[in-house]
């Protein structure tokens, strides 16, 4: 089989690329996805996101190595394993990031990734419910909607943030990010708005686009330093598929560096240790791993406005029936829509924390139901200084890689996280939440000292599910791709996904990943 373009991975980025590269009917495009279809109710129903997060049919279900600064806990790292990837199982919060994030990228020597240069691509993605403006788009494939969730806890929370001295911001993807309010979501007419539905499905009928699901790419094939094809297992048979123009790797922040290393691109010493022939010695492959680490500030709720109601059989069944009949009710929302961005202390120059308010307790990634009404504020520093890495366990492509995030390796990350708790407590103690608020159950009002808060963080903090940076774009020795996302020292191979981020943005990563894919599509089409 031969195609002009081969895309490895039909996740958030892969779906965008599949659509854009196949717009020209002269381009023969193939996309290969290890997972299967995401055309199931568990994906479509916004509140059902935990069902796919814990299902190995739809999720890679990775775990980190024991994290040395989190009491040696192994943290869960779910990644979408289906058409649509993480856009088919994320929390549907659509946040672009701060202008300052992309100015920092620009200052790393990446002039074409400045805020002014990426803003048109953010606008190109969306049809925003608030309408066209200098900052927002209204002609894009993806519906992005201001949340209409009317849970009284959300209004009380936003009012409390205002009472605590924070700005109320009606559009955190607009001119300024700082402030509190309702996040934009990729939920449309009561259903998840995934890249499958809004990028890939409209392109499916094109004769020049070939979609291969349940197809595991084991290796990239090289002719010297030129990528020419892939070895892929389809229906238990290894096929060789060739690319006339380019291969684009969009496996995500775990799978992309893993496949590069398996194919001979990475730190030569590590590859030789695993018995892999070195094609190109690139020290940065798998390095620079970043994530947002969340700490939950948890409070009992005295009013029955939380999702605890829907852990009971009859309300749960009735809510499900309502959604199946009319795509409305509690199942039509993610309930992660309220939150904001704030400075953790006066000396911080820009908003350095993101908050998500959630009207329930989350226990073990939703596997355990709460025992009472409650709500929690998820708090995470936007720009952790700690860096982790991904390495191979073996040369077998079916062995999961080793993932070490190295959370809290840098002391300032721990300091910022402690500051998060103080800011959260101030918000949660304001008059607007008074009629709802019961006792604090996490960390607990008796936990006040730095040592006590440190121990709570080390024993309870969890991933925000935002891994990135493992094939970073840059001009330094640890960069894996250049400014045009081409793998350094290799012809005809690019990486297009969250792994290319040199530094994690102040955002949930889906929107920035879509922007990267939109911009990459132009680079590829124009052969830049």
Give me the secondary-structure topology.
Blueprint: E1 2-8, H1 12-21, E2 29-32, H2 41-44, H3 49-53, E3 62-63, E4 76-77, E5 93-94, H4 99-107, H5 115-125, E6 126-128, E7 142-146, H6 152-163, E8 179-182, E9 184-185, E10 187-188, E11 191-192, H7 195-203, E12 209-212, E13 215-223, E14 226-234, E15 237-249, H8 252-262, E16 265-266, H9 268-273, E17 280-281, E18 293-301, H10 313-326, E19 338-342, E20 353-358, E21 374-381, E22 389-391, E23 402-404, H11 411-428, E24 437-442, H12 450-460, E25 462-463, E26 493-495, H13 510-525
Parallel strand pairs: 1-2, 1-15, 2-12, 6-7, 15-26, 16-17
Antiparallel strand pairs: 3-4, 5-9, 7-9, 8-19, 10-11, 13-14, 14-15, 18-21, 18-24, 18-25, 19-20, 20-21, 22-23
Helix pairs in contact: 1-7, 1-13, 5-13, 11-12
Mean pLDDT: 97
Helix content: 25-40%
Strand-residue proportion? 15-25%
Structural class: alpha+beta
User: What Rg is obtained from the alpha carbons, in whole angstroms?
Assistant: 22 Å
What's the overall geometry? globular
Q: In this structure, how is the largest beta sheet organized?
A: 7 strands, mixed
Number of strands: 26
> Number of helix segments?
13
**Distance between the terminal alpha carbons, to the nearest Å?**
26 Å
Low-confidence stretches: none
Attribute tags:
7-stranded mixed sheet; alpha+beta; 528 residues; globular
């Amino acid at each position: 089989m031969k195609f002009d373009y081969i895309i490895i991975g039909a996740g958030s980025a892969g779906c965008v690329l599949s659509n854009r590269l196949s717009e020209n009917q002269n381009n023969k495009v193939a996309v290969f996805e290890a997972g299967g279809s995401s055309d199931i109710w568990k994906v479509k129903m916004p509140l059902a996101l935990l069902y796919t997060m814990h299902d190995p049919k739809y999720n890679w279900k990775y775990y980190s190595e024991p994290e040395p600064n989190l009491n040696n806990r192994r943290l869960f790292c779910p990644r979408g394993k289906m058409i649509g990837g993480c856009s088919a199982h994320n929390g549907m919060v659509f946040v672009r990031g701060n202008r300052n994030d992309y100015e920092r990228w620009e200052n790393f020597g990446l002039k074409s990734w400045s805020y002014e240069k990426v803003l048109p691509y953010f606008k190109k993605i969306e049809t925003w419910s608030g309408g066209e403006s200098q900052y927002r788009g209204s002609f894009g494939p993806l519906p992005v909607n201001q949340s209409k969730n009317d849970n009284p806890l959300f209004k009380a929370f936003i009012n409390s943030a205002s009472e605590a001295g924070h700005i109320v911001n009606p559009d955190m993807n607009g001119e300024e990010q700082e402030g509190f309010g309702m996040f934009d979501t990729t939920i449309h007419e009561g259903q998840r708005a995934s890249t499958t539905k809004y990028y890939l499905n409209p392109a499916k009928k094109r004769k020049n686009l070939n979609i291969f699901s349940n197809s595991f790419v084991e290796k990239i094939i090289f002719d010297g330093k030129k990528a020419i094809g892939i070895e892929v297992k389809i229906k238990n048979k290894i096929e060789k598929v060739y690319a006339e123009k380019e291969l684009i790797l969009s496996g995500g922040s775990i799978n992309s560096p893993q496949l590069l290393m398996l194919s001979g691109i990475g730190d030569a010493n590590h590859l030789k240790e695993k018995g892999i022939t070195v094609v190109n010695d690139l020290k940065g492959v798998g390095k620079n791993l970043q994530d947002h680490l969340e700490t939950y500030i948890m409070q009992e709720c005295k009013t029955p406005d939380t999702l605890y109601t829907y852990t009971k059989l009859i309300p749960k069944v009735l809510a499900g029936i309502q959604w199946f009949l009319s795509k409305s009710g509690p199942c039509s929302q993610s309930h992660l829509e309220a939150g904001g961005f704030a400075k953790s202390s006066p000396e911080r120059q820009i908003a350095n924390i993101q908050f998500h308010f959630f009207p329930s307790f989350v226990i073990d990634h939703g596997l355990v139901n709460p025992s009472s009404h409650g709500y929690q504020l998820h708090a995470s520093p936007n720009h952790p200084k700690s860096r982790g890495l991904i390495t191979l366990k073996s040369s077998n492509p079916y062995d999961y890689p080793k993932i070490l995030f190295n959370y809290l390796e840098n002391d300032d990350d721990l300091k910022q996280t402690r500051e998060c708790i103080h800011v959260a407590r101030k918000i949660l103690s304001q008059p607007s939440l008074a009629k709802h608020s019961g006792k604090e159950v996490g960390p607990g009002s008796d936990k006040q000292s730095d040592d006590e808060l440190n121990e709570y963080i080390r024993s309870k903090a969890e991933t925000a599910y935002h891994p990135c940076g493992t094939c970073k774009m840059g001009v330094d020795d640890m960069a894996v791709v250049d400014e045009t996302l081409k793998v350094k020292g290799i012809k005809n191979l690019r990486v297009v996904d969250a792994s290319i981020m040199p530094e994690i943005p102040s955002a949930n990563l889906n929107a920035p990943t879509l922007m990267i894919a939109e911009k990459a599509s132009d680079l590829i089409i124009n052969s830049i």
